[in-house]
What we know:
Elements: H1 2-29, E1 31-35, E2 38-41, H2 42-53, H3 60-84, H4 90-98, H5 104-108, H6 120-131, H7 137-165, H8 171-182, E3 184-192, H9 204-213, H10 215-218, E4 224-233, H11 238-257, H12 261-267, E5 271-272, H13 287-290, E6 298-304, E7 307-318, E8 322-331, H14 338-354, H15 359-366, H16 370-373, E9 378-382, H17 389-398, E10 404-409, E11 412-422, E12 430-440, H18 445-461, H19 465-474, E13 480-481, H20 500-509, E14 524-528, E15 533-546, H21 553-571, H22 581-587, E16 592-598, H23 612-620, E17 626-631, E18 636-645, H24 653-678, E19 682-684
Antiparallel strand pairs: 1-2, 1-19, 3-16, 3-18, 4-13, 4-15, 5-12, 6-7, 7-12, 8-9, 8-11, 10-11, 14-15, 17-18
Amino acid sequence: MWMVLILLGLALAAFILMDANFTGQRNNQFHLGKVGDTEIDWNDFQRAQSIMYSNSSQDVFTTRNSLWQHFVESAILDKEAEKLGIQLTDEMIEEMKTGARLSPVVKSYFPNQQTGQFDRSFYDNFIQQLNAGQIDPQGVQRWEYLDNFIKTDRIKAQINALAEKAIYTPSWMAEEVYKEKQSKVDFDVVRIPYSQLADIEPTDQELTAYLKEHRAEYEQKEEKRQVDYVAIEAVATPEDTLAIFEEMNEIKQELQTTEDDSLLVLSYEGGYSPAYYKKDKLPETLQEKVFEMKIGEVYGPYLADNAYNLVKLIDRKDVPDSVEVRHILRGVKTQDQIAGAQNIIDSLQQLIESGSESFEDLAKSFSQDQGSAINGGDLGTAFPGQMVPQFNDLIFYQAEVGKLYKVFTQFGIHLVQVTKKKYAQGTDRSGARIAIIRTPIVPSEDTQNAALAQANSILSEVQNIDQLRQYADKHNLDLVTSAKFGANDQNLGGDLGANQNSRNIIQWAFLSNVSKGDVAPEVYIFDNSELYYNQYNVVAGLKDIFPKGVPSLVTVKEEILPLVANQKKVEQLPDLSGKSLQEIATHFAAQVSTITDASSGSGILEGLGKEPVVLAKAIASEEQKVVGPIAGSGGVFYIKVTNKKPAEEIDNLAFYRNTTGMGVKRSIPFSLIQSMKEAINIEDKRSTFF
């Protein structure tokens, strides 16, 4: 019996250990990161992204990064708020959502589509619908989740305010800053480009010493990696181009005989709008041709911007250069409001057309465009392109003076009346309405498949990055080096840019079993996002790994080599002390130029560009003394200060003290949270999930 009990005990212990181990793995599996001792759970992150960004027009990389920053800042600021005794109750957050002083976060969710500023009427309408239960469940969920963002924003604002109050600029400091910025200096300068000086190869010891001295400039806060890649591009062949040309000729026959231009043009994804274009608004290739054509005639196919084009002249008419117009607007925010707004506009139109009410009086009483309502709906003089497209097309190309028209735009339903059309003297009034069908010249499917096959052939022949380089040299292919990237980046730079395929390569490069010199086991296909075809077929290999911290000399040697070489060029120059600036210029076959009114705030020096070291030397130098050689960005410099202009006495020290501290205060919202992030251990495992 005791043996059975022991075995049962061992089995139970094993089960408990197995379950504990499984639970640990499970928890770790959904562990997205950690900020100090606060864990960020993958499920929480995904839920937040689904709620806040499900209908966002931003790309997924941007929204994920924004949300990650929110989670990180929220974790940091919650701890800081606890230390500082900052408390936010549910009632306080609700007040910031619906009270008199709305949170900036809330305001950012209700912008006016035209100005981008907070739209109070849009917000009020939303609250009314929310209280009436007319907002969809997803919208309600987003509104409720906004509490998290409001809380973080408010804590940040309060901590920033505390930091701002601690900023103090003493009078002596303000006075010194004033003198430094307002003092000016004139100086003569000789510039000798580095390219004119003999090349001197630095030793590794010299390069190492430079790296040690400038370690802060090269130290990396996270590990970076870099790939080399060959991109086989699918390019349209002459046969592909001919096939597209022949297809456009067939479409031309349809376009010449169709009775429904708009339907045909739109079926080929062409352009068909009510607009009438004057000659100078047409592409240069069409300016003369369109106004020589007969109505109904089709021109093309002609080649422009790597596409074959067909143009049909639909109509011609005189087009005003400007119009005087007025309107009555009934705003529409939801589908349910359309019918009510339409009924009001119809009723107003009947009253005006019957003569029982004037346009001006009804606009003052019923228009929801407060800016024009006070003036009887008058919008003044409008010019082409000034109004939203539907409104613009109506008043310039369709409306007759004095008649009433209805048009629906993003702002609601408008009752519109053009009161006057104006034509500039000495200009051609004629405008042409055209339809355009455009077919880009893109590689055929066979050509795309051939490019992919070539990339796969390369992949089958190379085992490492050295072989990839050799293959590229042998077959005259470009071997491209990507930008350095971190584990969570999505941009390789160059033609590949930021997208999911770049992200896939970066994820591969950071796999734990991938070493420097390895070649990725698959071909990455990059689509042309505008023309929707497989453009690049990429074979990539891991070129280099740049560890966190100060890099080794090998990894930055190419970068610092020219800098150290330039320093050595300066060190090897002959001793020209005692020589005049003109004699120095003659020695180097250079010229003396003059810089006037330079100050510490001068970013660019005329004729020299940005040379902060030269500027600092000039400000610190004595008058009439030749100083040099100075190792600058664009060469070696010798200078002589000819005139120093001290700052005038400050007449309002209190004001200058305030403005001096203002720059520091403005930097607090960014720099303070950044310093908080640097002071805490942040574990980021996003790259293993996305």
